[in-house]
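Justification of computing resources. Each target in the renewal requires a structure prediction run like the one illustrated here; the chain below, 70 residues long, is used simply to show the kind of job we budget for.
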Amino acid sequence: MRDVEIREGTIRLGQLLKLAGLVEHGGEAKALLEEGEVRVNDEVETRRGRQLSHGDLVSLGEEVVQVVAG
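Resulting structure tokens:
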């Protein structure tokens, strides 16, 4: 697991996936979400606009990132 620092209090899931380097672009994020490949706090998430905040865990395959305040 690795930390991804955000400046604001929240970040959208699609933005976090790009910031963390888990996807290259929004289209890739959208496809992975539609396929149920992304989990937030160990639950499948399909909404690219899901708001994440400090402490949330996002996983894609073997990669796990934690949102931390910056």
